Amino acid sequence: MMQREDSLIIKNGIVVTAEKIQQADVYIVGEKIAKIGRNLHLSAAQVIDASNCYLFPGGIDPHVHMDLPIKDFYSSDSFTTGSAAALHGGTTTIIDFANQAKGRSLIEAVDEWQSRADRKCHCDYAFHASITDYNNTTRKEVSQCIDDYGITSFKTFTAYKSSLMIDDRQLIQVMTDVAKQGGLVLSHAENGDLIDSQMDKYRQEGNLAPKYHALSHPGVAEAEAVSRVIDLAYATNCPLYIVHLSSGQSLERIKFLNCLKRKSPPIFVETCPQYLLLDESLYEQEDLEAAKYVMSPPIRAKSDREALWKALKSGLVTSIGTDHCPFLLQQKKLGLGDFSKIPNGIPGVEHRMELLYSEGVEKGRISLKRFVELTSTAAAKVFGLYPRKGSIKPGADADIVIFDPAQKHILSSKTHHMNCDYSVYEGLKVKGKCWITILRGVVAACDGAIRVEKGFGMYLKRHPVL
Ligand code: URP
Ligand code: ZN
Ligand code: ZN
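Above: the input record for the complex with zinc ion. Below: its predicted structure, written as tokens.
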């Protein structure tokens, strides 16, 4: 057989998918996986020896915010810098959010976000559309998103009343319309009125330190909204994906509503590494240190952390996103005299897979197969990218992470690739490192260097297949 110039063989690795673990070689031609098997006698233009390494499907981070405009500036990672960091950490596809401005067109937002990503996003990318104002025009635009743009998932907010929140009447209409068209509704579930009333109270009392951000977003604000949006999803028969779930109280509501057993409509739950690894004591530090961790929902008690780990194992949590939304220290400083002015969000896209491996698999909290499901396969299935992405099998995109489980390293802003001058995991010792990340058959990141120019925009298919 003639050797193809665009062929690559990865030899001697341990291939891990959500279904099985096998020692095998992976033969890639062009962008696709062509063959998987033991001791393949095939010659390829490029050979990588992956002895003692795992081969994972390229990570899919379903929740990032690159170039997110907030009042006077943007989140500090652009699509270019943020996608490079993603590749270094084994993530080959990111899904960002195109946010409708209140009173403006949803399609205008989608065009705006796509043009930012199209300029130069190193990894593959797709979008959810965030609906912040549901009127007759937006209703038509939902169909346009699905039919013309391949955007099938629509984010809604039950918080951020002045900018992003829609009321329950609008949410019910969104769910009804999206369900009819085979789409999925995402929910940032926190009770906006409760949060606003707490924020006003603390500000009136002169309690302005960053820790009052956390105190004004109590666990019950999330639990109440989680329970409400699930009930509304059942009432409208609309598939629902709850983003960045942070609290044990919310998990109790999800258990109470029996979401795992009641299969239709499916209720999917995402959590993030920060809720699994950090805890609220960080808000007790001096102001700028505490401001680094201001995000919504905030990080919570150690008991919430433990409840989330259990939910990863039991299947109550479906997938892991990062909610990557970094700001520089000078931007965080803008809110030092008033916690409500601290831009919300933290850096995270680079470390999702290594953190979950080190803290999850290495510490015996989750299995290797579950690790793959949580970091790649589940998101591919929920958001209509499967089986093209989310697995290592013939015919799939050759998105593969070659992961060295023995390599130890320490996370730091001095060595990470995200455009952020601090790390929320500064000094954390991690076991296991993404050595090579392959995107569509090309070595995209290796030993700190990015070798691909541009990823591709992906269409999301309707009808989640989980
Ligand atoms: O604090 C956060 N999470 N910022 C990003 C926007 C969001 O709510 O997901
Ligand atoms: Zn959110
Ligand atoms: Zn977010």
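Notes for the reader.
The domain at 58-382 is CATH 3.20.20.140 (TIM Barrel).
The two ends are 39 Å apart (CA to CA).
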